[in-house]
Amino acid sequence: MKITKIMFDESQTSKMGLREIKLDRLGSVVALIGKNGSGKTRILNFIENNFDEIANINSFLKSDLNKDSKGTYNNRIPLQDIDTINQELFDYKLNRLRELRGKVKTRSRLEEKHSLEKEINELEIELKKPIKETLVIPEYIKKGFKLALTNNDIYTQLKSNFVKRIRYDEIRQLQDVITKNDEVNNSFEQLIESIVDEAEYNELGSLYKSSLRFLRKLPNQLALDWIDCLGDTKKFEKRVAFIRYKALKAIFDQMFGKTLEWKTKSIKKNITEDGVESTITGFWHINNRDFNYSEFSEGEKTLFAFVLLFFLMSQNKNIRLKESIIIIDEPELHLHPDAEIDLIKGIRNIIADSGQLWIATHSLNILSHLNYDEVFVVKDGQIFHPSRTIQKEALTELMQIEDRVQKLTEFLISISEWSFSHFIIECFTNPDVIEIAGEDDPQIKTFKEIIKSKANGKNSLLLDFGAGKGRLLEKSFYDEKFKEVVECSALEPQKEYHKLLSSKGIKKIYSSHKELPKKTFDFIVLCNVLHEIELSQWIPTINSIIESLNISGHLLIIEAKILSKGEKVGKLGYFLLDQYEIQILFNLNQTPKILKHADISDSITSVLIPKNNLELITKEDVLKTLKALEANTLYKIEELRKKADEFNSNNKLGREAAFLSQLHINSRLALKYFEN
Predict the structure, then answer these.
(1) Domain span including residue 505
(2) Which of 184-198, 349-363, 436-450, 550-564: highest mean pLDDT?
(3) Residue 7 Cα distances to 20, 355, 469, angstroms
């Protein structure tokens, strides 16, 4: 789950000393940067406290997909897979109730028995709430209880399941308990035991405490399971202990930056008349050394507390950690610089593409590892959107706090160098799938205008080639005229996106260009796709596209003129063509005209090529295109360097220089590849 848009007027935010909040196109990380008192924490608090309104703004409960044939909203399916979410929650509560009823019969201590009975009563009340809207649940559950949810219930459940505010007192509490006797409690098992015995949990609750008890004996449980499975690896890996070990290891390795492994050793052997007796114990290794907490630095001890907390959350069936919105205020507290970066990188890896991280920070170390579009400067209660000067503004704010180091001053002066190096680093990472787009996105505006002007009547067949998660067609479907004139299909190699594409109204979905029917489509659109096709696949892929167009069809190519982020595409990198290189690739008689919406700047290349102008491309066409690309990029770099006076204060020029330099290198490498 991600918050992609927030809209609050100042009349709603002024009580907390904030200006209006209007944010959209939010990605996987949202970093609020500013000095103390700027309003960062107040903004996080406001977002957490107003999640119900934010959820409504983000259409978690209402979307066109949930309308029935009469155009009214069907709240029985208010969120994709909400039935599944509610069913899992119901199942968990029901199973928990049965488990507690069994436990209470075996407990003799009145205090413990009373605690269990209290939880049983709370669960029984929750499971018997009046029914206003029955969700789809399995038949065997219907015989027992039915689950009823209003919209308010769903908002509450969404927040409970998907929004997690990590407060420093949770981390501090875990760390304090761990370090209380760290001179004697150095082993993993002893540390976990001290937490179980001494921590006052409050929010963490009894569920976390039971997970910790399991974690304490986990190494020995793994040893027992290994013996019990007689070395059968497949059987062993299905055991609960191994599954939890994998969860712990994944979080530890990602967040700690070191490798956690489980080992066994025999501490006692004895031969008897009946056979051999052996006592085996399990223990932990970190980077091939015994786990020893006293060897951890202070920053590592704090990181270890984060690891435990994230592991505990991962074991809570009600929390979908990978799909959660994680909120942390000042994650840098009590962490050394390297640990700050490890923490942010670790959380990024845990939530991956499905979740979102919100942080408020004034750490220069964290700032230096953020993408420019993730940085939101906060000043006097107002949020400033990412822009070409955002790093400079952020540093200006933070330098007032940490007036140190000449190197940072140089960094501030040479901001375009930062953009250059950051872009080059990104060229060694796989491209992101664009999930969201604003309705004013220039590519979407251009796409809709071209299709509506060229479509002849209704039901023109359109193929979105490389559709990703369907952001292009999803936004276009808001335009009723567009919906009237086209019937949409998609090609997307990543099959995990097919279900999402179908839910957005796309009729037919292909996985490969080899599946495309010939002489079929009126339009095939490549939006931000041509540059992502691996060079070795250009000829078969592009020729399949050409053959799939009907005799009066059109090929529409839309690309940004400059990539905002570096991308790794295949072995040779990206190849972003403008209209001149497109003319050479397709052997056109003249340079195709750039088509764009009237109020859009020259930030995109968009060309429409009729099928009768297209011939199958050859290796010779590709070679000519690469040679032209090599020459054109060199010329553009030379022209850009004439703007040297602007360079130091403009990170847009830094990104452009990095983009052109990498594109020039890619074209030279590609020519060498073809020569060989």
Answers:
(1) 442-675
(2) 550-564
(3) 8, 20, 24
